[in-house]
Design goal:
Blueprint (H helix, E strand, L loop, with lengths): L1 H11 L3 H13 L1 H7 L2 H6 L8 H31 L12 H7 L9 E2 L6 H9 L2 H4 L9 H12 L5 H21 L2 H7 L2 H16 L3 E20 L2 E17 L5 E4 L5 E12 L6 E9 L2
Helix pairs in contact: 1-2, 2-3, 10-11, 11-12
């Protein structure tokens, strides 16, 4: 017994009450110890419940579940505020093919184009009008020019002579300026292969000498259709341009060797444009040029 008490002191310290309670617990049992010495409950009964590894993982899982759920709700509310809700007034989905057809004539500004499909109504009225009125302001009825225009519109119902003349004027100015600037890319879109080769050779020769050309349009006074014909499936229309422009050439040192920056020159050009009427490509290209009188 004495040895046991000494052993208790070594385990629980010198306090006689703690040593006695521990001894009573070991010898008489926990219940009696609690009845005689309540302090046993403090010493021998733990105040916390140990957490197992499974419960710890479960707590962490529950915490992350709550966090992810909160993030999902936040994302949903953000998308709802940005995208909105269906109201029944949404625009139809974008159709790239219809947009391409509508803008076909605008995809390349450096070309002479036929009128769009919206001009079909105007063409029907032109076809139904009297021959003497069909090409009024463009060609006299009964002439070879009127017959050539009739042949073209017979194959291409969207052809409009006045619209063509307006496009030809724009192309004429662009080609003359592109040649002066040496803009091969613009010329390639506007000229046939043969005409482009001639223009490009002249530009190359000019560049080899170090010469530059400066051209400025003052006005385009006239642009009249002088001939029109349909060769198999190729429409050809010849236009006579009368313009006023200022043009000069400088050498490699910048000195003027031809023309004058202050002189306006009257220029007459006769150009022929062509297009395959069986093709969906509405572009006309310059196929022949000559100086007019």
């Amino acid at each position: 017994m004495v040895g046991s008490k000494r052993h208790m002191r070594r385990l629980f310290g010198a306090n006689p009450w703690i040593s006695a309670a521990a001894y009573l617990h070991i010898s008489a049992g926990t219940v009696l110890c609690l009845r005689r010495f309540p302090v046993c409950g403090v010493l021998l009964i733990p105040r916390f419940h140990p957490v197992t590894a499974a419960e710890s993982v479960q707590d962490v899982f529950d915490t992350w579940t709550i966090i992810l759920l909160a993030v999902a709700v936040a994302i949903f509310l953000k998308l709802r505020s940005v995208l909105g809700q269906r109201t029944g007034r949404e625009r139809p989905p974008y159709d790239p093919y219809s947009a391409r057809d509508a803008m076909r004539g605008a995809t390349n500004d450096n070309v002479v184009t036929l009128p769009g499909r919206g001009a079909e109504g105007a063409q029907k009225s032109a076809e139904s009008s009297e021959p003497s009125e069909r090409w009024k302001g463009v060609a006299e009825a009964g002439t070879a020019l009127a017959a050539g225009l009739d042949a073209i519109v017979g194959e291409d119902k969207t052809f409009d002579a006045k619209h063509f003349v307006a496009g030809a004027r724009a192309a004429y100015e662009m080609i003359v300026l592109a040649y002066a600037e040496g803009d091969r890319r613009a010329l390639k879109n506007l000229l046939s292969r043969e005409v482009y080769d001639g223009f490009e050779a002249a530009i190359r020769e000019r560049e080899s000498k170090g010469e530059t050309v400066e051209t400025r349009f003052v006005a385009i006074d006239k642009s009249d259709i002088t001939a029109a014909e349909l060769r198999v499936r190729t429409a050809q229309i010849t236009v006579r341009f009368v313009s006023q422009l200022v043009s000069l050439t400088r050498d490699h040192s910048g000195a003027v060797i031809e023309g004058s920056p202050d002189k306006v020159t009257d220029v007459t050009d006769v150009w022929t444009f062509a297009r395959d009427v069986s093709s969906r490509d509405p572009n006309w290209k310059l196929v022949a040029t000559e100086a007019g009188q």
